[in-house]
Every structure is written in structure tokens, then in C-alpha cells.
Write a structure and sequence with these properties.
Keywords: DNA-binding, Transcription, Transcription regulation. By secondary structure, the chain is mainly α. The chain is built from 10 helices and no strands. The protein has 2 domains: 57 residues, Arc Repressor Mutant, subunit A; 136 residues, Tetracycline Repressor, domain 2 (Orthogonal Bundle), CATH 1.10.357. The longest helix is centred in the middle third of the chain and has 25 residues.
Length: 198
Amino acid sequence: MPKILGESLEAHRREVRSRVFDVLRAQLYERGFDAITLAGVASAAGVGRTALYNHFPDKESLLVAFVEDEAAQYVTRLTDAVEAQADPVDQLATFVRLQLRVLAEYHMPPGTALASALAPAAYRRISAHADPITDRLRAILAGGVDLGRWPAEDPDVLIPMITAALGNRTLVDGPAEQLEDVVEAAVRFVLRAVGATI
């Protein structure tokens, strides 16, 4: 009988997923998605291959589950950080800061690389996790307009421009000691772009 990690089957499941996701996160950074194998992830996570296959039947399923887990955690973090600010200008600045800091922390393959590595249905599942982030940005922009903090603009035009600016890895791939200066420059850029009154 396979060894159970934790005090219950649910605790075992959480522990396996946690170990596997920690390994996958490191391997995505070190090797890239194409070089990852389920057997290698299982070995590095200290779980049996059968246990891993019970949770994730293939590499694509593993990546989708990982991204879903990371996205859920990030949305909670983003919501808490933004809601801690009362003023839409501060909310937008918080949004920009967190987006760039998280981009610096995580080294997922860019969208185009994922799109070519995954089946279309799996890529759509991963892409769907951007929706709550986009919804949060839309709410911030609407709140700023409602309170007269910036002029009304079509959010369907602004949102792609803001997310494109904040999704550029070259911004955060420089020396670590320059990251905060880059982040603050991006905050000023986005606030000017929406016409914020500071």
C-alpha cells in the first residue's frame, strides 16, 4: 500500500500537490516546460510516480492544475491588497506594483510559448485565470472615473494597453536592486496613461 502523507486522505492530497507544485515551479524556472517530465517531478518531490499519475495523468494536466492554483492564490492576494486602499489612485498603483512584483517572482513561460506547448483547450483554461485580474482592473478604472480621479475612457481600450505594459518581462529581468525603481516608474507611467489626478 502506498505511503500516505499527512493524517488523512485530504491532507495527503494537499501535501502531494504542494510538493509537486514546489518542484514544478523550480523546474519551470531552471529548465522550461519542454524539459520537464512527470517522472522527474515525482522523483524530486519525493512522491511515487503512481501517486503523481493519480493526481495528474500527463504533463499538461499538471501545468494546468499548477497555474490554476497559482492564479487562485494571486487573485486572493491582489483582492486583499487593492481592497486595503480606499482611493482609486492608490488602488491602481497597488495593482501595478503587485503585477510587476509577481512577474518578477514567477518565471512561467510567456503566453505564446504556453500556447504552442499546450492543446488549445488547456491553454484556454489557463488563459481564463486572467479574467478575475482583468475584472479587478476594470473595477479600479470605473471607480476612478466615478470619483473623478481620471477621465472616462473606454476600458476595453485601456485594459489591454495597461496589461501589455505590465506583462513585459524585460521590465523585471534586470538587476534585482533596480526592481523597485522600475516598479515605481511603471506606476507613474500607468497613472499618467489613465490621466490620474494625484
